[in-house]
Amino acid sequence: MYLFAHIDFSLPLEDPILKFLLILVIILAAPLLLNKLKIPYLLGLIIAGAVIGPHGLNLVLRDSSIILSGTAGLLYIMFLSGLDMDMSDFRHNSWRSLVFGLYTFCVPLLLGILAGYYVLGFSIYSSILLAGLFASQTLIAYPIVSKLGIARDKAVTIAVGGTVITDTLALLLLTVIVGMATGNVNEMFWWQLAGSVALCIAIIVFVFPIIAHWFFKQVSDNISQYIFVLAMVFLGSFLAQLAGLEPIIGAFLSGIALNRLIPRTSPLMNRIEFVGNAIFIPFFLIGVGMLIDYRAFFRDWESLEVAAVMIVLITAAKFIAAWLTQKSFRLSRDQRTVIFGLSSAHVAATLAAVMVGYNVILGHTPDGEPIRLLNESVLNGTILMILATCTVSTFATQRGAHNIAVRQTRPDTDEKSAKVEEHLLIPVANEQTVEELVSLSVMLKRAKEPGGRLYALHAIDNQVEDPSAEKRAEKLLETAATTAAASDIYLQELMRYDVNISNAIVSVSRERNITDIIMGMHQMPHSMPGLPVLPGISGASGPGIGKMTADVLMQSNLTTFIYHPVQPLATIKRHLIVVPEKAEQEAGFKLWLRRIRLLAENSGAKVSLLAPESTLAYLRPRERRRPANIDYVPFTQWDDLPSLGHDMRDDDCLWFVMSRRDRVSYHPSMGRIPAYLEHHFAGYSSVLLYPVQAGDTESRYIRV
Asked: What is the reported pTM?
């Protein structure tokens, strides 16, 4: 044993390596074991924290390191809930979130006051503060809906928005009641509270996006971007704390502020989710478990009575709020279950409120005992209530979210094209544009689509002797694969020798059943005169296109995107897509339009479709509700395309839906578009989109 004498094995563990190792083993083992028992792993982590904590086996103390990691995990959950939110849907459902927030605040508040005053015999101030505990809630089960891929479901959006509202009201109520109980409320108190809250929200919502947009535009280093995001989360949380709000409100608002700048399919988003789900959030759940003291069950009857009242009334109140929300907005039973599950857990705001109430001493008894705003029985009952509500929350959310996820993954029988596997080909030749081409491909792809594939191709002309060609090809392909892997997408690298580049692209497209080609725009010197227009291709020569691209367009009939990036795709605020008349009659109309809708969904940026009124009728979706970030604008100025410059703003990306010559949607101005891009729109990112086109002009009037 002398060999291990220098290591301290006494309990609780003091060695940081042993402590960290134990927690990592729990994080690893809990999901593996509990998945077999059909128990949500979140609950398993909480139970594990109770077992190893100071009230269990006393293996690990809930010291400053656990508190720091747990606080970061809680802020991470709230930040992710704001970051994952579909902002267009959130704006559309904001009033629903407000209604649910009022339901889930007012119903528990009313029941809590009645229970505290008439059942438990508390004073009116203590009863109101107890009711505030009932009203607050924690999104402890949010990782479940995120993992199951339903974070953008209407029910989740309503629940997340409502949580912010009810927590804000509950914590403001805490501030007011404590001030009134201690005699510190005056007219200046209200002005200071309102001013600080308004200033905090304004800074986070309006200033944070400006700072983040500038940073992402200037800095492309992946590590720096991630650290910057973390800094913004904690800065927002600190500002909320300064304003008298709970830090979780600031973290959520930071997620809302950065939502559009961190697309859901981007590498940065993947890193944020990975680190949070692997480290920060499990630490928070284990820390919650360490709070649970099983001895409170046996300490005194008053604690058990208070705990029973709290658990029953909180569960009933949150279910009533979810039921009222379901009936108000005609939601499904599974959506009601998800709303109830997400809103029924009480941890962060509840624990903060009860500790504040416990530490407020209103006076002393004749025996010298302190008279607290919330007594020890409420404190002990809160610990038991945390365990019970977290259990209910995880099981309810798991059941409802699973049913919604299963229903969403059923094949759509109305859209046969949705069944076609996506095979996207990215020809890479320029080291400066590889990452942006991959980013655009990821934006145009269905998120986490099983069966779809991404290919990067570098073609080498076998008639040119260049010993270093293979090394350059390997470097380009490795960059493409690394960029895709950062978004958790596998990209297959292809290197091919051929008689020319265009022939290699066309051949690979046929061999791999490619559905879309995403390639870079050719950059020709300004002094070179435009080449003659090649037959069958509008605008297939001259500045911006080049002979190789023209050959690809002539020899293949695939949806082709020719991209010229001027700034990072994630910093684009608006995509202007100019569509020609009769575009709906082309064979590939539905294919490219689905890509544009995926772009709007994955990027979160504004998309404006500019087209003649007759074509707009086919661009608009059949559903009554359209995506809020897609606009449909009448446009008939194809003979004066430079006039678009009057409507262009900084951080716009300009798209033109093109046509091969002599097809039904062809317009003579298309031949001049590459020159316009160079001379009139040189400072903007741009995309030329060539759709699949049939050899005839048969009409395909299909609403999509």
From this structure: 0.75
